Amino acid sequence: MEQNPNEESQKEQNPTEQGPTEQGQTQQDQAEQISRKHVVAGNWKMFKTRDEAQATVREVVGLVGNIQNVDIVVCPPFTALGAVEEILTGSVVQLGAQNVHWQDEGAFTGEVSVSMLADYGCSHVIIGHSERRHYFQESDEVIQDKLEKVFSTELVPILCIGESLEAREADRVQEVIPSQLERALRELTDPQTSRIIIAYEPVWAIGTGRTATPELAEKVHFLIRSWLSDHSSVGVADQVRILYGGSVTPENAGQLIEQENIDGFLVGGASLDAQSFAKIVQQSA
Ligand code: PGA
After folding, report:
1. Which atom number of ligand 1 is nearest to the Cα of residue 160?
2. Which of 168, 163, 158, 97 is nearest to 130 (CA)?
3. What is the total count of domains within the chain?
4. Ligand 1 mean position to 211 CA, how many Å?
5. How many Cα atoms within 13 Å fall on the side-chain side of residue 280?
6. pTM to 2 decimals?
7. Residues labelled as active-site residues
8. 76 assigned to some structural domain
9. Burial class (CB in 10 A: 0-12, 13-18, 19+), 61
10. What's the gap in Å between 114 CA and the centre of ligand 1?
11. Beta carbon of 266 within 6 Å of any ligand 1 atom
12. Boundaries of domain holding 254
């Protein structure tokens, strides 16, 4: 089960955005009330057999099993969910899936439902990863349907958004990101929106070894939080965890996590190795 994002103090909001209140509360006091628990999720994609998966999570649990102030999630392929669940039971590391169908059940060859994921003890599910959008033609409508289904359960969606290299080079980020948010989130209520985890993953940074600079990532994270604030409320925007994804490594995680609006990571390649995944978690703690 997802914990309250505000349970652990992680990062303060920019105090310069708010003035003193009538009660004489200082800007700093207000800032201290707003905090988000970091999240580090490993997206294993189409890697690892059951044995390999068990060996990796055993090591992960050994390395980060005592870290309480980060939500740690591993997302193995469907075929390894059961094997990984066996190891994770009773540990702080949570289990996520990489995809889900939007119907409860039916004649959908090759697909998996929300109740099947719950059956394996999944607490999280990745929705709309750019590889799903690109290779499997997942449209914004499909992503919206999946979110709606996920919200009828206890699962926490990790919604992926991000611009292509083409959009970045054409200076269209300010247009693409809000439009992805609008299409995915427009039907959600405020309580649903505050439960979502958003992963900003610039497509040009995924699996390329090309990471967004901390400043560049922070700019987009700020844009996302501002959009949430305008379309829901400041309170909702303050609660939503926004992760960065795209060639995150133990070498670049430290600087990225220092940014005001970066609340953790969705890690691909580096999450396949327990040691490097653990280092990223430790830097986010
Ligand atoms: P990467 O993948 O860390 O290998 O770039 C990130 C992702 O696809 O979620």
Report:
1. 9
2. 163
3. 1
4. 10
5. 35
6. 0.89
7. 129, 201
8. yes
9. buried
10. 24
11. yes
12. 33-284
